[in-house]
Amino acid sequence: MKVYPRVFLNAKEEKEIQTGFPWVFDNEISHVKYRETEADEWNQTALTECTVKNGSGVEVFTKAGGFLGTGIINRNSKITVRLISSEHADKVFEDVDSFWEKRVFDAVNIRRTHYSEKDSYRLIFAEADFIPGLIVERYADTRGKVVLVVQFLAMACDVFRKQILDALKKACSPDAIYERDDADVRSKEGLPSTSGWIYGEYETSLQILENEVILNVDIANGQKTGYFLDQKDNRRLAATFCHGKKVLDTFTHTGAFGLNAFKAGAKEVVSVDISPEAVEMVNRNIHDNHADKVCTAVCADVFDLLKEYEKEGRKFDVIILDPPAFTKSAKAIQKAYGGYKEINLRAMRLLNDGGILVTCSCSHFFDSHYFYDMLMHAAMDSHKRVQILEKRGAGPDHPVLLGYPKSEYLKCAICRVM
Fold first, then answer.
1. 3-state secondary structure of 377
2. What is the pLDDT of residue 1?
3. Which contiguous run of DSSP H or E holds residue 370?
4. What pLDDT does 39 receive?
5. H/E run at residue 263
6. I want to staple 87 with a disulfide (CB 3.0 to 4.6 A). Which of 91, 140, 318, 392 is the partner?
7. Is 295 a catalytic residue?
8. 247, 251, 275, 352, 416 from 319: Cα distances, Å
9. How far apart are CA 331 and CA 351, in angstroms?
């Protein structure tokens, strides 16, 4: 039986892992034990002197020798080990094809309980689906094709790309698979940047249907994988408040919130984004949904535009705030707090009495505590009273893994402002 390298943690560093946290950071490691061949004696070294090949399977132990799980080591990254199983390595790697096939099929089958073949949704959500670093989006093109967009964002999944891709083909029968591995995070893993078709070939400009809204998606050049599928259910709910209303949709990206409002019978929709390319896509989506008489796309900085509308005395019945993450680190939380608070208090001032504010944050660092505290203080400073009608997150295609807070990143509050 093969004996795998063993990573031992510093004292008490196992507590997070025992609650479900799937990462081991470099500063949590006491030492590594390994041997070059099965006949050799064990070597024990510090992590910095370790010669275990990056991408290798390792077993993780407490300081006292208690087994924690099997993972993949990558000394290029501060996340040195990403755990892939709570079983010993010999069981994981005795049939590695079957191991990853089961993981992929499990993720696919969970989604099939919620979605139809005509739906577009996140198929695999990395650590939350027990496949560290792997993102897979399933796009159902209105012309009858199914295209998967994949991101191998960590070495822990990249070294198994053949097994994972084979399993995806078997589980989903896609017409084509497009790789979007041009994210900066890959460089932190010591992985090259790459993108393009890796199975089949189709157009990179797709057209999907979301809540009966036609949306164009650019999988080659759009942000991340081309579209943000996590807000699908929140867009549908927000639209129920929009019939006969004047709606402001900010940080709109593709215009999806605004177009859902249009489908629900909104009287007027203004969709705002700072990116000219995004506004071009919004206009295309407005045209394809025959929404030109109701919807207008505006290219502007949302912070500046909210100030301008306030000076003009302009009012709306529904305002949607769906900004990008204002912080990508714990150090910048206070600065982000100020940014979130400013747009929320200005939006509250622009709403008619009893108006609806749909406000979101997609930063996992800016957690629910900060988010709802910020809303309370935004309400105080704008001299408004706020009822939170519903607290929401991402859809069921984005499961939350207990012990891994990053998987519960999206906050969406439906508020009545008076």
1. helix
2. 64
3. helix 368-381
4. 75
5. helix 256-263
6. 91
7. no
8. 6, 11, 19, 10, 11
9. 33
Digit-coded pLDDT (tens) for 233-268: 999 999 999 999 999 999 999 999 999 999 999 999
| Residue 331 pLDDT | 83
Among 150, 130, 119, CA closest to 395: 119
> CA 207 to CA 227: how far, in whole Å?
11
Q: Pick from 96, 52, 89, 98: which is nearest to 69 by CA?
A: 89
Q: One-letter amino acid identity for 232?
A: K
Q: Can you give the pLDDT at residue 288? A: 97
- Consecutive H or E run containing 276: helix 276-288
211's tokens? 């809540």
- Residues (pLDDT < 50) of the chain are none
Query: What is the end-to-end Cα distance of the chain in Å, rounded?
Result: 69
* DSSP of 184-248: THHHHTT---EEEEEES---SEEEEEETTEEEEEETTTSSTTSS-GGGHHHHHHHHTT-TT-EEE
Q: Which of 157, 295, 360, 362 is catalytic?
A: 362
DSSP string, 62-98: -TT--EEEEEEE-TTSSEEEEEEESS-HHHHHTTHHH
CA distances from 227 to 94, 97, 190, 195, 305 (A): 38, 30, 26, 16, 24
Nearest Cα neighbor of 320 from 288, 357, 295, 368 is 357
At 349, list the tokens: 């001032």
Structure tokens at 10: 């510093």
pLDDT in tens, 97-147: 999 999 999 999 999 999 999 999 999 999 999 999 999 999 999 999 999
Q: Which amino acid is at 119?
A: D
pLDDT on residue 330: 79
The model scores a pTM over 0.85: yes
Instruction: Indicate the pairing of strand 43-45 with strand 67-73.
Output: unpaired
Structure confidence at residue 329 (pLDDT): 79
Give CA–CA dist 228/416, Å, rounded: 25
- The residue assigned the tokens 């993450």 is 325
